[in-house]
Each structure stands twice: as structure tokens, then as C-alpha cells.
Specification:
single chain; 201 residues; alpha/beta; Hypothetical Protein Ychn, Chain: A; 7 helices; 5 strands; 14% strand
Length: 201
């Protein structure tokens, strides 16, 4: 009889211990689930980044893009610039006609050879407008487009040339300045989703 009571007592004591262990397991599982949800939310939050799409080959618009990029960098933000179609001119140092198809050669001949030859969106006046603007900028000790581009690169701007636009327009990677990455729209979207703002120029 005494042995039976002892077994019953031990069984009753073990039951609360099993319940406590189960509760601890459930709490640990809940904590892990909450940590996973929190990490997922943090991954979706915008970071201190700015993403710029450079679509235009107008000198003044591209110039504004590099001014914005350098301003963001000065504020401690990360910057990525995605150059596509006409905007590829902003990162070109030359144009190679050799090996291009006829239509691509025609496009190359109708677009600026390099960034120094880009026109302006207004008052282009057969190239007089951009030359006058560059002269005024030099007189006012304002950095040129190429100088601002170099500063942006030195400060860590990620510059990406659109691979699809390159294929369409027949632009080769060798025509770009040094330090240019190549990527598709997915590359840009990855940057844009993490950025606080996206600017289209």
C-alpha cells in the first residue's frame, strides 16, 4: 500500500514538470517565430540608400543626377545609379563603330560619342548651349559633369550599365569609363527596393 502511494506521489510530481517543459518549448517556439517575423520586416525596411535611373543623355539632367548623388553621399547615404538607353552616354569615354551592325552604327553616329559631347535639354543651339554652360561652370569654379562623376565614383557610388539597353544600342563595355558594373533590371530593382527614394532622370 505504501509503495502504491509513493508511485502515485511521484507520478503527480512528474506531471507538473512535464507541463512546465511543454510550456517552455512552446514559449521558445513562439520566440523563434517572432524573431523570424521581425527579421523579415527589417529586411523589407528601406535603408539609407538612394537609387537613380539615368535615362536621358541631356547634359543638364545628367549633371543634376551627379549633384544629387554626391549630395546623398555627403549625407552618409549609399547611392546606386542605373544608366540605360540614352543615359549610357553619361558613362562613355568613346564609341567604337567596328563590329557593330548597320543599325547600331547608325545609332552610334546619331548619339554623342562620349559624355563631353552631350547636349542640353533646352537651348542646345547646335551644341553652342552645352559649350557655353561648360564655360560658365568653369568660370564659376563649378565642377564639370566628368569631375562630379569621378567624385561620385571615389565616394563609392555603384554605377550600373543596363545590359539590355547595351545589346539594343550596340554599346560595348569597353566604351565605358572604368568601374562600371553591368546588370539587368533585376539588379536595379534589388537596389530600388532597399532605397528610401528612387529618382528617374
Amino acid at each position: 500500500m505504501k509503495n502504491t502511494l509513493d508511485l502515485k506521489t511521484r507520478s503527480e510530481a512528474a506531471a507538473p514538470m512535464d507541463t512546465q517543459a511543454q510550456i517552455r518549448m512552446e514559449l521558445e517556439k513562439f520566440r523563434q517565430e517572432q524573431d523570424e517575423r521581425l527579421n523579415a520586416l527589417e529586411a523589407r525596411l528601406p535603408q539609407d540608400k538612394v537609387a537613380l535611373v539615368v535615362f536621358s543623355d541631356d547634359m543638364d539632367k545628367v549633371l543634376a543626377g551627379f549633384v544629387i548623388a554626391n549630395g546623398a553621399l555627403a549625407m552618409g547615404m549609399e547611392v546606386s545609379m542605373y544608366f540605360t538607353f540614352w543615359g549610357l552616354t553619361a558613362i562613355k569615354k568613346t564609341t567604337n563603330l567596328k563590329g557593330k551592325a548597320l543599325k547600331q552604327r547608325m545609332l552610334a553616329l546619331m548619339t554623342p560619342v562620349k559624355s563631353e559631347e552631350m547636349g542640353t535639354s533646352n537651348l542646345n543651339m547646335l551644341g553652342m548651349g552645352p559649350r557655353m554652360m561648360r564655360t560658365i561652370m568653369k568660370e564659376k569654379n563649378v565642377a564639370s559633369l566628368e569631375e562630379l562623376r569621378g567624385i561620385a565614383q571615389e565616394m563609392g557610388t555603384r554605377m550600373i550599365g543596363c545590359s539590355m539597353a547595351m545589346d539594343v544600342m550596340g554599346v560595348e563595355a569597353s566604351e565605358f569609363i572604368d568601374g562600371i558594373e553591368l546588370g539587368g533590371v533585376a539588379t536595379f530593382m534589388e537596389e530600388a527596393l532597399k532605397s528610401r527614394m528612387t529618382i528617374f532622370l
